[in-house]
Design brief:
Radius of gyration: 15 Å
Number of strands: 6
Largest sheet: 6 strands, antiparallel
Number of domains: 1
Strand order of the largest sheet: 2-3-4-5-1-6
Distance between the termini: 23 Å
CATH topology: TATA-Binding Protein
Order of helices and strands: EHEEHEEHE
Structural class: alpha+beta
CATH superfamily: Kinase associated domain 1, KA1
Number of helices: 3
Shape: elongated
Strand content: 25-35%
């Protein structure tokens, strides 16, 4: 499954709130396991199992990490594949994850706080 990280400058609480707003604008509901990590859920597992791609279910792990030097990392982990909804559901899930990453990247970039971003599995994210 996919993962993506954004490194941003400024207050970690502001970075967290920006990520929350982006997720909520995409109809995700957030459940926080602790102050800085949780999951974002969109859809219903039962409906996805019964209706397939007509009712996709998506779950994303969210983690905000404060680093030295006034920077924070916002990590999004795609926790579901959409497989329960078949091939169409898988494509919809990947497309939705990519759209969310694009939206969050634009938001951080427009605010002038984006330092770098990328897939952590691909090595060091581009500067």
């Amino acid at each position: 499954m996919s993962a993506y990280e954004f490194t941003v400058t400024g207050d970690p609480a502001v970075a967290k709130q920006t990520a929350v707003q982006a997720l909520e604008s995409q109809e995700f509901v957030l459940e926080w396991a602790e102050d800085w990590s949780g999951r974002a859920i969109r859809g219903n597992k039962v409906k996805a199992a019964l209706l397939g791609a007509l009712s996709p279910y998506m779950e994303i792990g969210v983690k905000v990490m404060a680093l030295d030097g006034g920077v924070s990392v916002i990590r999004l982990d795609q926790l579901t594949t959409g497989m329960m909804s078949g091939v169409i559901g898988m494509k919809k899930t990947d497309k939705a994850f990519t759209a969310l990453i694009d939206q969050l990247g634009r938001t951080f970039d427009q605010a002038g706080v984006l330092v770098r971003h990328g897939n952590p599995a691909a090595g060091r994210p581009p500067a």
